[in-house]
Amino acid sequence: MTAIGVFYFATEYGDNVVDVAREVEQRGFESLWLPEHTHIPTSRKSPYAGGTELPKEYSHTLDPFVALAAVATATTSIRLATGISLLIERDTLTTAKTVATLDILSNGRVILGVGGGWNREEAEHHGVDWSQRFRKLEEQISALKTIWANDEASFHGEHVQFDPIWSWPKPRQRPHPPIVLGGETDHSLRRVIKHCDGWLPRARDPELVVRGIQKLYQLAKEAGRDPKSISVNVFAPRPERELIDRFKNMGVERIVLWLPPEDHDALARRLDSYMPFL
Fold first, then answer.
1. Which residues in the chain land under pLDDT 70?
2. Strand 198-200 vs strand 254-259: parallel, antiparallel, or unpaired?
3. Residue 144, Cα to own-chain centre: how many angstroms?
4. Beta strands 161-165 and 153-156: pairing type?
5. Ordered structural domains, the chain, with CATH
6. Residues whose CB falls within 8 Å of the CB of residue 200, separated by 6 or more in sequence, listed in order
7. Predicted local distance difference test score (pLDDT) of residue 19
């Protein structure tokens, strides 16, 4: 059965993320997904993929891990997901502890959505070489798994390096929380197969996602990986019955519907409109 989750663009001016999470859980949705941007450079050199002016919420996002920790204390069943965490802008060792701590406190409810991002200037403010961002991301994913899997862990890559360490806690979920990767290119599909537990494609173009699912399974078989071991999490499709049913009939694991940073009443009405998809 396909799960239905909700993405909320959590900000300080929209409805409180904890209140939204309670509403999401009470209505029976499966997961809550939060985005990440540490900041938005005022230069605005990187074009917004939506093709319009960058919406206000991008420069007002709450820290997803702090927000999800607050959500964990107010809920009992919904999965707590990043959609996506900009891992390349984060310290790997700190992130390993942050994610593991959240997974412990939430009793094993974390889904780690990651990606390379689209804002070059934002990443460069964190010292990221934009041309190397995906190589760094791949190493970070491998390093996180190494830390979580071993009592004594070390890693020596080009972008991530550390001698043997002790780092607890380990995540409640073993061997680690599901790691899902955003991105729609063939390179992204190959990274999913090599490094991740699932794929998180944006559904701006549904046909691109449909073709991507078929290509993902083909590439998985060619790489000797069971396609059933890879979850497909369709992100922000149009909330239309025909489209949602199409993805459900393809057997995707999860569909994540979009919530903008509105006030409580507006968000409640939008959530109610999504309930027929459950």
1. none
2. unpaired
3. 15
4. antiparallel
5. 3-277 (3.20.20.30)
6. 83, 84, 113, 115, 180, 181, 182, 233, 235, 256
7. 98
- Give the per-residue pLDDT at 51: 76
pLDDT at residue 52, as a whole number? 78
- Residue 85 is given by DSSP the state B
CA distances for 240 relative to 146, 199, 204, 273, angstroms? 41, 22, 13, 10
Contact 68, 31 (CB under 8 A): no
Question: What's the predicted TM-score (pTM) here?
Answer: 0.97
Q: What angle do CA 184, 258, 20 make, to 5 degrees?
A: 135
Residues in the chain: 278
SS (H, E, C) the chain: CCEEEEEECCECCCCCHHHHHHHHHHHCCCEEEECCCCCCCCCCCCCCCCCCCCCHHHHCECCHHHHHHHHHHHCCCCEEEECCECHHHCCHHHHHHHHHHHHHHCCCCEEEEECCCCCHHHHHHCCCCHHHHHHHHHHHHHHHHHHHHCCCEEEECCCCEEEEECCCCCCCCCCCCCEEEECCCHHHHHHHHHHCCEEECECCCHHHHHHHHHHHHHHHHHCCCCHHHCEEEEECCCCCHHHHHHHHHCCCCEEEEEECCCCHHHHHHHHHHHHHHC
DSSP string, 250-268: TT-SEEEEEE-S--HHHHH
Residue type, 264: H
Report the distance separating Cα 37 and Cα 85, nearest Å. Answer: 8
Token pair in block for residue 269: 């009405």
Which SS3 state, helix, strand or coil, does residue 33 take? strand
